[in-house]
Every structure is written in structure tokens, then in C-alpha cells.
């Protein structure tokens, strides 16, 4: 309601349900370690009394994906994803299950930190953070001759020794420019990790 009520033990009350500002759900002040990334103007829970760069809740630690003080990720990896077998594609949809991996892709939902590497076509990304699944759907107007890279994404992790083989993909649908089914193999084609 926008009015702080000490009788109800409200730490704050800004009158909204925004979980990225300084006053999060149930009228509690944002804290590093609550699992909500505080990036709004009213944030004071970050490492220098300002915004948080990350917050993985009780998984925050010096060797966790997010540093214990919410200052950033221990290791970030640039993951390049591509079709690795020779095939002519008109469209493809794939899924990466990372639920058992030590980390997550930056961003969430359609705002995941992924960039299409295709110059022609329509691309849609969706990161289901809660389920640990990343999906991409691509429609290529003039077709694509593979092998070819499709996307580049940023993965935050506590494991600086990740390899391309740690990422496992399922092709949900693949078709030729004439809409005939084709077999396509999706894999990580390049992996570059930086420890901070």
C-alpha cells in the first residue's frame, strides 16, 4: 500500500511488487543472498552499498557461481553453439538441459544473454531458469548449409574447468528449406571461460 507498517513488521513498503528494487516481496528489504538480483535505484544490498550484479541465494560463495557479496560471477563462459553435421536447414529447434550443471545462463526467459550468429532468419531464445533449460528456435529464409554456428551465449559457473562435452543438446525439430525432416546435430563448437 506504500505505507510502512511497523505493527506488521514491514521493513519497507514501496507499494509495488517489483523484486528488483530495494523493497522486495512481503515488504522485506533486499539483501545479498535472498536470491533476487537488486538492480533498482533504491538498492543498497550490493557490494558497495548499491546494486547487485548477481544473487543465487544460498548458493552464493567464493567458489559458487555468484560471489558471496553479490559482486559478480566467479567464472563466465562464452558458449558458441552450432550444427556440427553437413545438412541444409530451413529451420531448427533445440534444447539444452543444464539443470545438473554448476551454473546458469545469464538473463532469463527471452532476455537470456544469447546472440544469434545468423544474418538471415528469425531466432527466438527462451531460458527456463527454474527448470535449467535453454531453448532456441530458428527459421532460416534462404536456408543454411551446415556445419554452421547458430548462437553465442554467456554461462556463469563455479566450474572453471567446464568443457564443450559438458553441454548436452536435444534437437526438437529440424527441417530442410522445403520443410522435409532432416537429421541435425547441435553441440558446443567453442567455449571460452574467464575466471574473475
What is the compact description of this entry?
By secondary structure, the protein is an all-beta fold.
Structural write-up:
- By secondary structure, this protein is mostly beta strands.
- The protein is about 0% helix and about 40% strand.
- The protein has no helices and 9 strands.
- The termini are far apart.
Q: Tell me the β content.
A: 35-45%
E-strand count: 9
Query: Helices and strands, in N-to-C order?
Result: EEEEEEEEE
Mean pLDDT: 87
**Tally of contiguous helical segments:** 0
How widely separated are the two ends?
41 Å
- Binned, the helix content reads under 10%
The stretches of 5 or more residues where confidence is low (pLDDT under 50) are none
Derived structural class: mainly beta
The best one-word shape is elongated
Radius of gyration: 20 Å
Q: Main β-sheet: number of strands, strand sense, barrel status? A: 7 strands, antiparallel
Observed structural traits:
196 residues; mainly beta; seven-stranded antiparallel beta sheet; two-stranded antiparallel ribbon; 0% helix
